[in-house]
Amino acid sequence: MNLGQTHVFLQERTIEGTSLTLINTDLTPDDIRSIEGHPVFIDCDQAAFGSFYLDLPNYFSVESALCYRNALAELGLDIPPALFMENFHEVGRYMGLRYLEVGLQAWRRHYNQEMKQNNDAIQQEKQSTDESEWDAQYWFFHYSLELALNGQ
Questions:
Q1: Bigger pLDDT: 37 or 41?
Q2: pTM exceeds cut of 0.90
Q3: For 67-94, what is each residue's pLDDT tens digit?
């Protein structure tokens, strides 16, 4: 999905109107916490009024997205499953491209840090702490790249 296609897709969802709601639009894992088993957003600086499809790839797998669609149907918004999944898939690519930069920046920080560690022989404790941070960022980078290339 290129920028023009994304614009058309979002414009169509806006005109259609059935998917408009308050959305978070922020994929950064650090902004979401689980409290007593429930997701809690701790950073809503990107909250906006828009199509719920923009949030779905951030928080739902293909299988759980269908559960979301079924819940919407129970509440009276019965979107045909094929159309729902087509929209879910298409917007997933956009979200992947949107956050690819975050992953690339984390990769660059990790690479620069590795070079510094090799040159300065930093303590083992510091290295293991930084590695666990990179592991979390690497997952995010891989997820964003996968979304950008293949959608959800």
A1: 37
A2: no
A3: 999 999 999 999 999 999 999 988 887 7
What integer pLDDT is reported at residue 104 of this predicted model? 79
| Dist CA 123 CA 110 (whole Å) | 16
Longest distance between any two alpha carbons in the chain, whole Å:
62
* C-alpha span between 57 and 91 (Å, rounded): 7
Which stretches of the chain are DSSP H helices? 3-16, 56-59, 62-74, 81-120, 124-150
Give the CA-trace dihedral at 146, 11, 25, 3, to 10 degrees.
40
Residue with tokens 């690479």: 111
Strands 32-35 and 48-51: unpaired
| Average pLDDT value for the chain | 78
Which string of b and e fits 45-81 if b means at least 16 CB within 10 Å?
eeeeebbbbbbbbbebeeeebeebbeebeeeeeeeee
